[in-house]
Amino acid sequence: EAEVAQSPRYKITEKSQAVAFWCDPISGHATLYWYRQILGQGPELLVQFQDESVVDDSQLPKDRFSAERLKGVDSTLKIQPAELGDSAMYLCASSPRPTSGKGTDTQYFGPGTRLTVL
Amino acid sequence: AQSVTQPDIHITVSEGASLELRCNYSYGATPYLFWYVQSPGQGLQLLLKYFSGDTLVQGIKGFEAEFKRSQSSFNLRKPSVHWSDAAEYFCAVGAVQGGKLIFGQGTELSVKP
Fold first, then answer.
1. Distance in angstroms (rounded) separating the CA atoms of residues B77 and B68
2. Contact map slice: A 49-88 vs B, CB within 8 A
3. Tell me: the pLDDT tens digits for B11-59?
4. Residues of chain A positioned with their CB less than 8 A from the CB of B43
5. How many CB atoms lie within 10 A of CB B2?
6. Dihedral through CA B104, CA B107, CA B108, CA B111, nearest 10?
7. What is the Cα Rg of chain B in Å?
8. CA-to-CA distance for A81 and B91, rounded, in angstroms?
9. Least CB-packed of A62, A94, A96, B28 within 10 Å?
C-alpha cells in the first residue's frame, strides 16, 4: 500500500538554527498539505499545494517559514530561524486531485517529523 | 467559521467494554466528516469518513460513526474495545471542494485490562 514518506522522523536543533523537512506524497496525488501539531492538540494546516502552486498559506508564519513543491511532487518545509515555540510534530498529507461534486478527498498522512528546539 | 469540539480529553474503558467518543462540529454547509487515530509518535490513520448518504458509516478495526445533522454530531463507536485501541482519536471536518481539515483537540483513549 502506498504511503506518504517524511524525513527526518526526529530533529533536535538549537534556537536560531535553520531546519528543513521533506515529504514525498503518494504517487499521483496532486494535493499536498503541511500541518503542525502541538503536543496535546489537533493538527493545524500550515500550507496547501495543488500541484506546484500554493492554494492556502494563510496560517504559515511567513517571516520564518517557507515551503516549496517545485515539480509538483515532493515538498520541503523550512524554518529559519527556529524558535522554542516551533517545537511540534510536522505532518505531511496528500490527497488525489479534487473532483467537482465529490467533496473533500481523503487525506493520507505520513509518520511526521518531531521537532525539538532547545 | 468551521470548528470541531471533542468534549472528552481523556477516556478510560475496560477491555471488552463498549466505547463512544463524542464529536460536535460547526459548519455552514453540508459537512464532510472524518475520524482519524494516532498512536504515540505516529502519523494519523483514517478510521472512517462521511461524505453523504447513509448516516451510519462503517470503518476499519470495527469502528462505526453516526452523523446526526440535527445535533451537529458525528460520534464514534465500537461495541467491544481491545487493548490495541489505546491511542488518540481525532474528529475532523473538511470543505466541499477539497482544502484543509479542521481538527478537534483529540480524545485520548486508555484501555484497562
1. 14
2. 55-56
3. 999 999 999 999 999 987 778 899 999 998 888 999 999 987 888 999 9
4. 4, 6, 91, 109-112
5. 16
6. -150
7. 13
8. 33
9. B28
